[in-house]
Amino acid sequence: MITYLKGYAKKKDSFMSSVAEADGGAQVLWTIPMSLRDFPETRARVDAALAVAKRQPRGPIGRALKRLLIRLQYNGSRRYFTRHRETVALCWNGITGSRRVFMEGAKDAGVPTLYAELAPFPGRMQLDHSGVNALGSLPCDPRFYTSWAAGRADRQDDGWRHLGANLTARASKRADVGQAAGVDLAGEKFLFVPLQVPNDSQITLFSGWVGSVPNMLAELAKAASSLPEGWHIRVKEHPSAKTSLAWPLARAVEAAKGRIVVDNQTDTFEQVRASRGVITINSSVGLQAFFYDKPVIVLGQAFFALPGLVRVAGNAEALSGALYQAESLSFDPELRAAFMSYLDQAHFPHVSDDPIAGVVIDQKAAQARIEAARAAARR
Fold first, then answer.
1. Are 35 and 116 in contact (CB under 8 A)?
2. Max CA separation in the chain (angstroms)
3. Considering its fold, how many domains does the chain have in total?
4. Residues 202-241 pLDDT 10s
5. To pair with 192 at 20 to 30 A between CA atoms, which of 2, 70, 331, 342?
6. Domain containing residue 41
7. Pairing state of beta strands 125-128 and 190-194?
8. Phi-psi category of 377—alpha, beta or left, where left has phi over 0 and alpha has psi -120 to 50?
9. Is 219 helix (H, G, I), strand (E, B) or coil?
10. How many CB atoms lie within 10 A of CB 171?
11. Is the pTM here over 0.70, yes or no?
12. Exposure of 339 by Cβ count < 10 A (0-12 exposed, 13-18 middle, 19+ buried)?
């Protein structure tokens, strides 16, 4: 039996329901259970969850109320799962705020966990017992992927490229950010920076040394002078970001003295295609740039931030060094083929999008991940 917290969106709930079908059914919780009685771990769990909550409270009263809510939710979740040790806890995202303590309560009760999220490729989803994105169970050693692919032609060829066959730029929710096609960028020497949603968990948890999107822009402005003559950095805001970054962008453009150009209108993947490389904190566009055979510079924590796959720039000096070498940026094509083949064949499960049933996971893939979650909980 799977116990999952309702996602309140058809895509999320239909996916989690289909996962549960692979294990005999679901117990759906419409709200997170609550309890006043603390555990020895309560304070630490609450502190960690509050620090990465997507919606940060305003003022001391708001913070106190938010802390109380998360405390009650951790205590309630842990007590619920202590009474239902036979279940597997499933949650959408599950790494920030209230959903984080829901999953932490399950873990501390000894219950297996599964985290669900969108995947960076059409027709796939994330379903992992460790977490999503940089917290997932993907090995961090490049040798794992080359060893996995050794002796297997189907793991070393271009079969993985079908993952990008139906890739399209995200439709914009903002009037000032578009996806215009047909813009001629031929001959332009630039590195493309697709900005991320500033308060997304990818930024609040995994932005590394840059810390935030505005601070990344400031660091890019400082490093831009290291670019070869005639090169520039081209930046585009995220089409789903609710808050404009016009002010930090304007400051970065001014500080970079012509080395940063803002292009919010040209299609994201047309800019990737025309670029000489991509710079990102950990955006999925960085991974998707592999389909265009582009070198990628990663500034934050990402499951694809492996040497050889990308250029990892873990501080300001490394970023300046990467920009200085913009003309010779490269990657290991054999490692990329092995890594992407692993994502395709072993990591991201197939899903179908049914107009009635919603998003449905391949049942064998769901069963395999449920068993992996149970095995991880026993260790």
1. no
2. 65
3. 2
4. 998 999 999 999 999 999 999 999 999 999 999 999 999 9
5. 342
6. 2-119+348-378
7. unpaired
8. alpha
9. helix
10. 9
11. yes
12. buried
